[in-house]
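Structure (tokenized):
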């Protein structure tokens, strides 16, 4: 499972649409039209399903420092 993402047309940055799906199911859905309020530019963006993708990785997890097993000793 992952967040369905689109690219903000104003900033070019990736934003979550608020939809959660697995890639296979999302790709099998019929084409649809939706709107999302962008947390970056505060504008409402209209988008079609074929412009979106499923991001199954957690971008925040890549930024979190990892703790080595020896650090807890």
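Design, position by position:
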């Amino acid at each position: 499972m992952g967040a369905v993402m689109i690219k903000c047309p104003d900033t070019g940055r990736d934003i979550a649409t608020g939809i959660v799906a697995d890639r296979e199911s999302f790709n099998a859905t019929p084409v649809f039209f939706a709107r999302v309020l962008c947390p970056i530019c505060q504008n409402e963006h209209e988008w079609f399903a074929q412009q979106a993708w499923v991001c199954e990785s957690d971008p925040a997890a890549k930024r979190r420092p990892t703790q080595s097993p020896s650090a807890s000793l």
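Reviewer-requested clarification: The chain has one domain: 2-57. The beta strands are 2-7, 14-21, 33-37, 44-48, 53-55.
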